[in-house]
Amino acid sequence: MGNAATEITTVDELVAVLGTPNERAANKGRDRLLEVDRRWLSASPFCVLATADAHGRCDASPKGDPPGSLVHVIDDRTIAIAERPGNRRADGYRNILTNPHVGIEFLIPGRGDTLRINGRARLCVDEGLFDVFAVDGKRPVLVLVVEIEDVFFHCAKAFLRSGLWKPETWDPGAVERRAVIAHDVEPDGRAVTELDEYYREENYAQGLY
């Protein structure tokens, strides 16, 4: 942004630019799940978990599992999400330990609308929850429990503008493949050929659970 950019600093200035939501959009938030929300969560294989630490520094972390295994509905005000093997950075979970407020976007491939849940989260090692999350006999070691404060469906305009689900718009080769990026940006001494083998799907998938 250049020096001439005009910054918006108040809510009134923001409203002057964006306008105000219609009544349906403004009041669509709910504090508990409906049956349609439960069906959506059961069909969703992917979500993005947004967190912030005590100083407001943010993180957004993707979570994925087969439909029906990503989310467990405890009751109409509470859901749980399992933690699977990853890079162990746990940036979002570290944030939750100091600031429990989270926002989660649940996607269904091919659908432009999404389900959004905002609430307060806690990290649990409740053995009673682990069994419901078992995939191929593998249980998680950690479960994120979220107490729902706000839940609503978000419209499809962002997906329509981006053409996200249209295969004819896809160009996975627009950026170097993962092995090259890892070699150049996150070097650990391995050659690109070794990293290609490591990231080959059938090899990389062995550590999913």
Furnish the topology, listing elements before pairings.
Blueprint lengths: L10 H8 L4 H4 L8 H9 L2 E7 L5 E7 L6 E5 L2 E5 L8 H8 L2 E7 L6 E11 L2 H4 L12 E12 L2 H6 L15 H8 L6 H8 L1 H4 L5
Antiparallel strand pairs: 1-2, 1-5, 3-4, 4-7, 5-6, 6-7
What would you say this structure looks like, in words?
- The chain has helices at residues 11-18, 23-26, 35-43, 91-98, 127-130, 157-162, 178-185, 192-199, 201-204; strands at 46-52, 58-64, 71-75, 78-82, 101-107, 114-124, 143-154.
- With 209 residues, the protein is of the alpha+beta class.
- It has two domains: 26-161, Roll (Pnp Oxidase, Chain A), CATH 2.30.110; 171-207, no CATH class.
- Strands 2-1-5-6-7-4-3 form a seven-stranded antiparallel β-sheet, covered by helices on one side.
- A hairpin with a 2-residue loop joins strand 3 (71-75) and strand 4.
- Helix 7 crosses helix 8.
- The longest helix is centred in the first third of the chain and has 9 residues, at 35-43.
- It is globular and about 55 Å long.
- The mean pLDDT is 94.
